[in-house]
Every structure is written in structure tokens, then in C-alpha cells.
Amino acid sequence: MKPRFRTSLYLFPAGLALTASAAIAQESEGGEEEATIVVTGSGLPDAPSTPAYASQEITREELVSTASGRIEDALSSVAGFQQFRRSDSRSSNPSAQGATLRSLGGNATSRALVLLDGVPMADPFFGFIPFAAIAPERLSSVRVTRGGGSGPFGAGALAGTIELESAGAGTLGDFGGHLYANDRGGTESAAHLSGNLGAGFAVVSGRWDRGKGFFTTPAADRVDASARAAYDSWSVQARGVAPLGDTMELQARALIYDDRRTLRFDGADSSSTGQDASVRLVGRGDWAFDALAYVQARNFTNVVVSSTRFVPVLDQRKTPSTGLGGKIEIRPPVGDTSVLRLGTDYRRSEGELYETALSGFTGAVRERRNAGGTNTDLGFFAENDVLLGRLVLTAGVRLDRYTIREGFFTALDTSGAVIADSSFANRSGWEESFRGGATFDAGGGLKLRAAAYTGLRLPTLNELYRPFVVFPVTTNANPALANEKLKGFEAGIDFAPGDDFEFSLTAFDNRVKDAIANVTLDPVTRQRQNIEEIHAQGIEARAAFSLGPLQVVGSLAYTDAEAREAGAAFDGNRPSQTPAWVGGAMASYRFLESGLIAVTLRHIGKQFEDDLESDVLPSVTTLGAYAEMPVADRFSLVLRGENLTDEEIITRNQGGSIDLGTPRTIWFGLKIEG
After folding, report:
1. Which domains does the chain have, with CATH numbers?
2. DSSP 131
3. How far apart are alpha carbons 323 and 634 in whole angstroms?
4. Phi-psi label, residue 42: left if phi above 0, alpha if psi -120 to 50, beta otherwise
5. d(CA 373, CA 351)
6. Is the peptide bond before 472 cis (omega within 30 degrees of 0)?
7. Fewer CB within 10 Å, N- or C-terminus of the chain?
């Protein structure tokens, strides 16, 4: 009997119940509000060791003033951040939107751990990040830390951690929103309401993006079946925060989203949906703690259309999956010169795919397939920071108990006869990882830092069990995949002699053993395989300065990355989709009380489509702009421009079959803040 998994829709009502409970006004025994209680809506404060690892913070102003209005655009300001493809969440397949750092991605799965209010956001089946559901205007800040992580959910932080923090009522104001339209008829609309409930607060926000998009196929290659990259996505988030006594805080959040896209051809439609709920209890007393629990229900569908006959050849009808997990972290009082973190976390991912293979000539069903499994990870971690005057030392250890089980693959022909029926052996084991570092305050604004670390990532259910097609190339799954393991070290400096200037420089060397890559078997077939290693070494730099209302921020990363497998055709090549040079800069100018002009420059160097370096994606430099002009009390006019020089952005090149990225796009509209 094969295992079967079911995604239910009870999560959103449950999440709303959690949010409502978190928003209950807290009163003293005498019935009066305890006005001295202050809630933050955030987790525990940063540990003293945080600066030991290469990190960068993206401010709220940077988040809300991108030319595209997309979170992935804001993340691109961080040296070393990368998606698998250059497309954003309006014109790419959702399953290709993995997030990684330092060129350590061998395929589209995320190597970076993305957290929203402490909750892992990766899809339980695929490992991609639902960027379309993460609205930048809902966030207060983002911190990106590069290098392997050993703390909470560290088994997902192979290449680093991206921490997204939701904005509270104090940041958002009582209400706000915007409505923008672009020159192709697309629209972007968002709104929020927030307010105090007793000594806490609640926020409800929504966003809706839709448009007919642009042609990703070059004009010379278009046929009657060619379609624009149409998109229609919406999300709603409800969040509540309330104090429980004078040192504890209850936080709850519910998120639902629906994202639909069309790529290349009429009928080549995909969808990604989700319902997430989480509850978090934070204690800030002598025994500080952070306890979190979450549940996620996700689904994905996709229709593959032949690029020669322009008819559906594969219907990935549904891919329901469920993520379940949580963490408990405790910081016991151990003295003024030491900070100790102890904890455990758990994540369970289960799901399965249902797909139908169709004849490209008759449209008749050829084969019905079903596959899936369950992955679990139970982690225990400990980390200690020691403060010795200007010197801070840190060391952490993590132990993970993982299981890969209940894996299966079945295929039936049109009569119901069995073509394939495989059940894969359960696997489990223990994996350890470590990290340590030091920072030294040399005075005059100069700090020196160094760190070393190891890391771990389990293969996703997608990599293990789901083949996929980007016609005419088929990439096969591999149920025998082993865990990826990272070893790395880095050293750097941070220089901030005053409030108006800062500079950071990091040199790193990272190796991923048993890296999972899409390995070419023949011109139309690839397979996910563990290769010997991906070795990436390079330099990351960032500088920022301000002169009154003028601010300039820039970053640059050079990464020398190689995929290594003795005797393989790709040995010594760059991993697919990884450029050597990535950089960007943003200059912003504040005027009047809320007026803003920002100009953004982005550069992505040459990269290759596949592991054999047979198809090149040329380097590209784009220019974007954002302008906000107050016109009345609480109202502002907004003008945005994406790719203002109309550069040709090649996002896919398979034997000359090319997809293009966003052309010049002009947005205009109205914004309100109250």
C-alpha cells in the first residue's frame, strides 16, 4: 500500500483564530491597562556574535523603493544573493525560484534559509521560495547572513540565512496602501489596516498583482501559440501581537496566497498556492526564550507545452505538500560576559505529485504518474558567545537526526496497467555541524572578523522523486541522493568611522561536498546527481555613505566557482546559472517631508545555462528608478521605471531556444499613508 498525503484547508481559519487570540487586550488584576508594557513583534535580540559572520541589513526604505516592487529585487542589492534564473516572480516558473548565496546552487532548490518572523518559508516539496507572497511593504527590515548556519533550522542554511521581519503598527501607521499601473496595463495594489488592541497590536494586509505581461520569446521566434507572461497573484496576511505579563509576548500570523502565471505558450499555465499559520511566544526575562510552532499547506500545478507542436504534453495536475515544525530556544543567565543559546527545532515535509503525460500528436493520455515521500529533521543546537573587552569569541554546535522515508513512484498506462511501481528504502542518520568566529574592535570604527563553519542540507522531495520538463529537455529525479555538506571559512573587515560612512570587505572559501546538480546525460536528458563538490571562493564588498539627504549604497561580489567531478565532462566548469561578477548600487535623495528619488544600477555577469557551458547567458546591466512626490496630506504620487535602458535580458538559453526577462516598464500611481 503506497502512502498518500493530503493538504487541508483548515490552516487559514486556525491562523485567524491564533491571530485573534494574540490580539486580546491585556489588563491588570484591577482591570486597568498596563501602559508600561511595550510589545515589539520581533524575536529575541541579536547575539553578540552576529557581527562575526558576513551580514548585511536591508532597510525599510530600500525595501519599498525598488523599481519593480518585488522582494527579490530588494534582495539583489546584497552581494552574493542569487536566484536560479534571472526572472522575477512575474515571469518565471515558481519551482525555479530558489534562493542561494555565493554561487553554491547546483539547481533551482534554495541553499539559503529564508525565514519570515522566524518561520522557514521554503516550499515543503520543492524548496523554492514563494516570493510573490512576500510583499516588501509588509516588512520592517531584512538581514542576510552569508555562510553556513548552526542555530535554529540550521540544516537549511547551507549557504546562509535571509531573515525577514514583519513591520508592526508603529512602522505602518493606522492605514495605508497604493495603487499603481504600468504601460502594459498591469496593476499592483496593496492595503493594510493596523491598530492597538489593549497593550498589543494587530495588522491585516493584502496585495494583488496582475498583468498581461510581456513576450518572453524573442520577436523573431514567436509563433501563433506564443503568449505573454501573464500573471495574477494575491496574498493576505493577518498578524497579532499581545503581551502576556510584563516579560512575555505572544505573536501569531496567518498568510494565504494564490499565484498564477503563463509562460511562453498559450496553455502553459502554472499555479502556486499556500495557507500558513504560526504562533510564537517570546520571553525577555532573565531566562529569555523563543518558542515557535508553524504549519504550512502548499500546492503547485504546471502544464508543459511542446515547443514544436505547441500542445500540452505534460499536466502536473497537483503537488500538495505540508510543512510542520517549530523550535524552542533558551538563553539561561550565565553572567554579563557570556551569552548561551540552547535549543531544539523540528521540520517535517511531506507531499506528492500527480501528473499526466499526454501525446503531442493526439492529446490522449499516455501515462499517469504519482510520487512522493516524507523528510524530517530534528535538530539540537548550542552556541556560546564570550565577551572579552574588545574581543568577542563564539562557538556553536548542531546535531541533526534526519529521515528520508515513505518514498515511492508509480506509473500507469491508459488501461490502468502498472508501468512502474517503486518503493524506496527508508534512510536515516545523524549529522553534526559546527561554526565559530571572532570579532575584534580595533578602534576608530574598525572591526576585524573571522569565522569557520560546516553545514547540511537534505535533498528535497522534488529532487528525490519528481522529474520535470522544460521542453524538450527532461530532468530526472534521483531517490538515492545523499545530503549536501558544506565546509567554509571567511575573514573580513568592517569600517564605520562615523554615522555617514561604512565599508565592509569579506574574503571567503566554501566547499559543498556531494552537491546536487542537474547533470547532462544527453542533449535532451539530465538527472539530479551528487557530484564531488562545488568549490566557491571570492570577495564581497559593500560601501555606503550619506551626505545630508543624499544616500548611496553599493555592493560587489566576485566568485570563482567550480563544479568538480573527476573524469566528468563538466569537471572544472562553473556551476550552471552562476555568474562570476554581480554588483549593484542605489542612490537616493530625500526632499520635503516624504519625497524620495532613488536610482538603482544592477549588473549580472555572464553565466551558463547548463553544466557543460554549452549555452551562454550574456552579462547584463540594468537601470531602475523610483520617485515619490507628496501632493496632499498623506497622499503621494509614485513613478517607477524598470530596465530603463531596455537591455535584452536573456534568462534561458537551451540550444538557441531563448527566454527574455523584463523589458523597459514604466509604473505610475498613488500611495497613501496614515
Report:
1. 11-22+36-481+493-673 (2.40.170.20)
2. G
3. 41
4. beta
5. 6
6. yes
7. N
- List, in order, residues 6 or more apart from 433 with CB less than 8 Å away: 148, 150, 154, 155, 397, 398, 400, 453, 454, 455, 456
DSSP designation for 154:
G
CA 447 – CA 439 distance, rounded (Å)? 7
Question: What cell does 65 get?
Answer: 523603493
Cell numbers standing for residue 135: 510583499
Gap between the Cα atoms of 136 and 49, Å rounded: 28
Q: Which three cell numbers stand for residue 549?
A: 539627504
Amino acid, single-letter form, for residue 54: A
For residue 511, the one-letter residue type is R
Per DSSP, what are the bridge partners of residue 540? Answer: 506, 557
| 583-606 pLDDT, tens digit each | 999 999 999 888 999 999 999 999
Which among 106, 107, 108, 122 has a CA at the least distance from the CA of 161? Answer: 122
Q: Which one-letter DSSP state was computed for residue 425?
A: P
Point out which residues pair with 558 in neighbouring strands: 539, 581
Task: Record the cell numbers describing residue 159, joined without a space.
Answer: 549557504
Cross-strand pairs, 457: 484
Report how far residue 197's alpha carbon sits from residue 19's, in angstroms, rounded to the nearest whole number.
12
Q: Which three cell numbers stand for residue 536?
A: 566557491
Could you give the CA distance from residue 577 to residue 323 in angstroms, rounded to a whole number?
28
**What residues form DSSP beta bridges with 166?**
139
Cα–Cα distances in angstroms (integers) from residue 461 to residues 322, 372, 661, in the given order: 12, 7, 29
**Residue 291: burial class (beta carbons within 10 Å; 0-12, 13-18, 19+):** middle
Question: In order along the chain (674 residues), what is the average pLDDT of each group of 10 residues?
Answer: 41 40 40 59 88 91 95 92 91 92 88 96 96 97 90 91 95 96 97 93 98 96 96 98 94 98 96 98 96 98 93 95 97 95 97 94 92 98 96 96 97 93 96 96 97 96 87 87 96 96 97 94 91 96 95 96 94 93 95 93 94 94 97 94 97 92 97 92
The CB density around residue 315, as the number of other CB atoms within 10 Å, is: 18
How far apart CA 418 and CA 155 sit, in angstroms, is 37
Q: Could you tell me the pTM of the whole model?
A: 0.93
Q: Which amino acid is at 623?
A: L
Q: Is 572 left (phi over 0), alpha (psi -120 to 50) or beta?
A: left
The values of phi and psi at residue 505, to 5°, are -145, 130
Query: CA nearest 399: which of 431, 375, 377?
Result: 431
CA angle 187, 193, 198 (to 5 degrees): 165
Q: What angle do CA 26, 29, 30 make, to 5 degrees?
A: 105
